[in-house]
Amino acid sequence: MAKEFAKGLYNSKAWQKTRDAYKKSVGGLCEICYAQGIVKAGEIVHHKIPITPDNIDDPSITLSFDNLQLVCRECHALIHDEQYNHLRVRKRRYKIDENGNVYC
Fold this sequence. Notes:
two-stranded antiparallel sheet
């Protein structure tokens, strides 16, 4: 589900043309599965650098083939789980003082 700020992009003709052209350019297969020798249809054109409110108007992020990857639903879920877990690991629920003591 697209975030509210990105709905305009994903409904635009520019995105729809870019998405369709990208799918054709990679043969319609999930790029991650294919790299592992698995032939599976790609369903989602994923932005490797995530779309944010700060870069939504930058076509080098939103519409560039260099930032796109065709993936199946399972691989897309794994990508986002990894991104979430990476962010979660970086958030600490504790602090460390200048002496190295842990506190909340």
